[in-house]
Design brief:
Mean pLDDT: 86
Strand order of the largest sheet: 2-8-5-6
Radius of gyration: 27 Å
Number of domains: 4
Low-confidence stretches: 1-7
Distance between the termini: 16 Å
Number of helices: 12
Strand content: 5-15%
CATH class of the largest domain: Alpha Beta
C-alpha cells in the first residue's frame, strides 16, 4: 500500500488510454499512479464535498501592515509539520481593512494551505488564531458545518493533507514554472479516505500524543541551551547586569571616547564593561590573531569548493555545515580560507551568535567575508573555552554594543578585537568545557529521540490511513 520507494522512478512510460486530467509527466509518475490505485480500492470522498469555503483573495498589496490590529497569517507561518507559528515579527491590518475581506476571516477548525513559496503546507486554526485574516500566499478551507463533528472533522483532514498521501496529491496538482502555485479547483479534487469514527479518533489521538512527546523533548533541549549562559556565568563568578528599560540617560564628556552614538553608551553596556574590567578581562585582540588568508576562485584548479555562509551556522548550538558550490558560480563574498582549529565569528548581526569552531572535516573550506577568522590563540586561553564564552551573552552584548547600522547591524574587525574576555584558571576553563559538552550531548540525544519517535509515529499513522480495517 505504500506508494514510496522503488516506485519513484525518473524514467517511465504511460499508455495513452491511462492519461487522465493532465498530460505532464509528473502527473503520471509510478508513485502517483500507485497511490491513485490504492485510493480507488477504498472509500474516499473529494475535498469539494466537505468544504463550504475554499477562498483566496488576489492580494493584500496596497495596504500597509501595522504593529497591531488584526493578525494576518501567511504561508511562511506554516511549518512542514502543519504547525502555525507567527514568529517574532507578526503582521497586522486595521479592523477597517479586515471588514472588507470577510471570506478570509478564519474560524476555529479552518485549514490554511500555502499556495506560493513552499506550496502545499497545511495548518489548522486553533483558538489562539480565531478572527485572523490571511494574505495572498494562503488559501482558506472551511469545512461544512454538518461535517465538522461527524464522519470527517478538520483534524483528520488536516492530518491527511499533511501526510505523504495528501502531499503527493497536492504536489501532483501544482502548476507554474518560475512561481509555482495551486488553484482552488485543483485543491478541491483531492481525495480523502472515509474512515470510521473509531479509527479516525485513534489516528488523531496517536498523532497528538506523538506531537506532545516531541514538543516536550524539544522544549527540554531548548531549556538546557537557554540555561547554559547562567551555568557559565556561575563558573566564572560573574553576574550579568539586569536588562534596563531606561531610555533617557546622561554621560560625562570625559566618558566619551571614540563613539558618540547613544546606543554605545547605553547603561546596561556600560555596567557590563565595569563588571568585566573588575575581573581583569582581556581584549580579544590580545588573545588571538585575525586571519587574512584568502582564496581567489580564478586561481583555483578545482571545479567545486566547500562554502560556509553565515546561515550555515546554527545559532543555538554553533554547529556548522558547508555547501558544495561550483567555482565558476562562487559568490563574491566566498574568500576566507578556514583551517582546523579556527573560530569563525559572524560580523553581520554578531549578537545572533553565529559563531563556530572549525574541525578537521571543515579544514580548507572557504568562508564568507562576513566572518572574522580567529587563529593562533594565546597560551592563557583554551581555544574551545574561547568559543564557548564568545557565544554567551557576556560577549554577544558587547558585540551588539560595538555594532553599527540599522536593520543589519555589523561589527568591524577592529571593534571585535576590543570586546573583553574573562580569563579564569585553566581548571575553571576545563570545567566550563565539560559542562558545555555534557549539555550539548544531552541536547543532541533529546532532539534525536524526539525526531525518531516523531518519524515512527507518522509512519504508523500513514500505514493505517489507506487501510480498510480498524
Amino acid at each position: 500500500m505504500n506508494p514510496i520507494g522503488e516506485n519513484n522512478l525518473e524514467c517511465f512510460a504511460v499508455r495513452r488510454s491511462e492519461m487522465k486530467r493532465r498530460f505532464d509527466p509528473s502527473n503520471h509518475r509510478p508513485a502517483i499512479r500507485l497511490l491513485l490505485k490504492n485510493l480507488e480500492a477504498i472509500k474516499t470522498i473529494a475535498l469539494k464535498e466537505l468544504v463550504a469555503v475554499c477562498y483566496r483573495y488576489p492580494t493584500f498589496y496596497g495596504f500597509k501592515y501595522q504593529e497591531s490590529g488584526i493578525l494576518v497569517l501567511k504561508g511562511e507561518n506554516i511549518d512542514r509539520d502543519g504547525e502555525i507559528d507567527i514568529g517574532t515579527s507578526p503582521s497586522f491590518i486595521s479592523p477597517e481593512i479586515n471588514s472588507r475581506f470577510p471570506l478570509t476571516q478564519v474560524v476555529e477548525g479552518d485549514l490554511l494551505m500555502s499556495v506560493r513559496g513552499e506550496v502545499g503546507k497545511v495548518g489548522i486554526i486553533k483558538k489562539a488564531f480565531i478572527g485572523s485574516n490571511i494574505n495572498a500566499n494562503t488559501i482558506r478551507l472551511s469545512l461544512k458545518d454538518d461535517i465538522r463533528g461527524t464522519e470527517l472533522y478538520p483534524e483528520f483532514v488536516w492530518l491527511f493533507l499533511n501526510s505523504t498521501y495528501g502531499q503527493m496529491q497536492i504536489k501532483n496538482r501544482i502548476a507554474g514554472g518560475v512561481q509555482e502555485t495551486i488553484t482552488a479547483p485543483e485543491i478541491l479534487t483531492i481525495r480523502i479516505p472515509v474512515v470510521s469514527e473509531t479509527r479516525r479518533r485513534k489516528i488523531c489521538a496517536t498523532l497528538e500524543e506523538a506531537r506532545a512527546m516531541r514538543r516536550d523533548k524539544l522544549a527540554l533541549a531548548d531549556d538546557l541551551l537557554a540555561s547554559l549562559d547562567v551555568a557559565i556565568m556561575n563558573k566564572l563568578g560573574i553576574a550579568l547586569p539586569s536588562p534596563s528599560a531606561q531610555q533617557v540617560y546622561a554621560i560625562k564628556t570625559k566618558a566619551i571616547r571614540n563613539r558618540f552614538d547613544p546606543h554605545f553608551h547605553f547603561p546596561e553596556f556600560v555596567q557590563l564593561e565595569h563588571v568585566l574590567r573588575a575581573c581583569h578581562a582581556v581584549a580579544l585582540g590580545q588573545l588571538t590573531s585575525f586571519s587574512i588568508d584568502t582564496w581567489n576562485p580564478s586561481e583555483s584548479t578545482e571545479s567545486v569548493f566547500k562554502y560556509i555562509e553565515i546561515s550555515n551556522v546554527a545559532r543555538d548550538t554553533g554547529e556548522v555545515r558547508y555547501e558544495i558550490v561550483r567555482v565558476d558560480e562562487a559568490p563574491s563574498r566566498a574568500r576566507m580560507v578556514v583551517k582546523s582549529g579556527d573560530i569563525i565569528v559572524s560580523l553581520t548581526r554578531p549578537h545572533h551568535g553565529s559563531i563556530a569552531l572549525i574541525d578537521d572535516e571543515l579544514d580548507g573550506c572557504i568562508a564568507s567575508t562576513g566572518f572574522a577568522v580567529l587563529r593562533n590563540f594565546s597560551k592563557d586561553i583554551i581555544r574551545e573555552y574561547l568559543w564557548c564564552v564568545l557565544r554567551t551573552q557576556l560577549s554577544l552584548k558587547q558585540m551588539l554594543q560595538r555594532s553599527s547600522g540599522g536593520n543589519y547591524p555589523a561589527i568591524t574587525d577592529d571593534e571585535l578585537r576590543k570586546i573583553l574576555i574573562p580569563i579564569p584558571s585553566r581548571r575553571i576553563q576545563k570545567e566550563i568545557l565539560a559542562e558545555v559538552s555534557n549539555r550539548k550531548g544531552e541536547v543532541r540525544r533529546l532532539r534525536s529521540e524526539a525526531e525518531s519517535q516523531w518519524r515512527n509515529a507518522k509512519k504508523w499513522i500513514e500505514e493505517r490511513l489507506l487501510e480498510g480495517k480498524e
